[in-house]
Give the backbone structure.
Amino acid sequence: MKTKVISALALAGTMVFNSAVAQETISVVGSSSVSPLMEVFGETYTKANPNVFVEVQGPGSSAGVRAANDGSADLGMSSRNLKDSEANDDLQEVVVARDGIAVVVHNSNPVKGLTKDQITAIFKGEITNWSQVGGEDKPIVAITRDTASGTRGAFEGIMSLTQKINGVKVSAISQRAQVASGNGQLKTMVANNPFAIGYISLGTVDDTLTALEVDGVYPTVEAINADTYQVQRPFLVLFKQSKINDATQTFVDWTLTPEAQKLVSEKGYIAVN
């Protein structure tokens, strides 16, 4: 009887062990802008491949680049191009989608468009009242992202919002600008402040706020594909070529398939093939 009990326990333990090791976990860390798309990728992929689970965390693009470089995650995500200091021969970049950066205001704001120069001046703190850009005589509340944000990095590059101090390139965004920790928080802050202006991933724009024309062009997928809307950036997946395993490589390859790229389009981003 004792032998049967031991055998049964051993069998149960073996089944639990096999179950635990049967599922491959792919850890993905990085951009909070890329994260919603990556979550959809992961859920769809796992449905077809139950032995693979994709775990997504979105602390920011800088964290994603570090995670890919130091191997603390299988994949990194970035919503900006890599800095020279981050790139190396072993770090591979895969563009899985492209995205516009929408400049957004409160729905009650009568201003429906700005030039790039006006937007730059607003975030530098040089234009401080909506009346200076055709709006009401009300103070402008500029809202930016935290310094680890890939959206902020891309926005600063596109809008010439950097400056050199003692030979070091730093942000030129006004210290008076309020800071949001993610797309969701920035949307909430703009939606609740009639005088606010901010910038978010085009794929996250909804009817709670208004996206502005930039240099006369409204942000749409068609305008980005035609390169008439210039405020755009890549969505990157990053990995070390020397460290990637077969399961992770297969998943990365899948993100470029017609099935995955259809998801990109359905979510309001721009497919890459």
